[in-house]
Automatic annotation (TrEMBL):
Pfam families: PTS_EIIA_2. This is PTS EIIA type-2 domain-containing protein. Residues 4-151 form the PTS EIIA type-2 domain. InterPro entries: PTrfase/Anion_transptr (IPR016152), PTS_EIIA_type-2_dom (IPR002178), PTS_SugarTrans_NitroReg (IPR051541). It comes from the Bacteria. The lineage of its organism: Bacteria, Bacillati, Bacillota, Clostridia, Eubacteriales. It comes from [Clostridium] innocuum 2959.
Length: 154
């Protein structure tokens, strides 16, 4: 995969939200305003997250990878986001477990197939402690994006 999916204009550094709902509201509005998603994206991603949570318990920094069904995506994207403060996010495949998440990769894929490889590459990178620490310490949005674009395999 090349970095064309990584969306500079949807990237956020130190986004100040207090909940997953607020995260989805802010990012859905931005993605819709920029022509990446449909009007239905917000309700669809909230429902999908409720049914199938997306926080990964990678050590030492859990990461969330929320995504919607392809029908709600106009242009494909990966939107890397660092939150100002960690928020509670339900763990993937374990709704009873709540993780503290500060790094979120909001994903928008237009096809069901083909994204598994990207998810696997992201997961490998999320397990690299040096990479994750660099993402958390990046001083500027440009530095943050550069770290994302240098991730192994992306």
């Amino acid at each position: 995969m090349n970095d064309t999916l990584i969306c500079d204009e949807l990237c956020e550094l130190d986004l100040d939200v207090r909940s997953t709902d607020e995260f989805f509201e802010v990012m859905s509005k931005k993605a819709k305003d920029l022509g990446y998603v449909t009007e239905q994206f917000l309700s669809a991603i909230k429902k999908r997250e409720q049914d199938y949570p997306t926080a990964l318990p990678v050590k030492p920094y859990p990461v969330a990878i929320p995504h919607s069904d392809p029908i709600n995506i106009v242009k494909q994207f990966i939107a890397p986001v660092r939150l100002k403060n960690a928020i509670s996010w339900c763990e993937m495949a374990n709704n009873d477990s709540i993780l503290s998440v500060q790094i979120v990769f909001l994903l928008g894929f237009k096809r069901e197939e083909g994204h598994v490889e990207i998810l696997q590459l992201l997961l490998q990178n999320f397990q690299n402690e040096d990479t994750m620490e660099s993402l958390l310490k990046a001083a500027t949005k440009e530095e943050f994006l550069e770290i994302v674009k240098q991730m192994e395999g992306l």
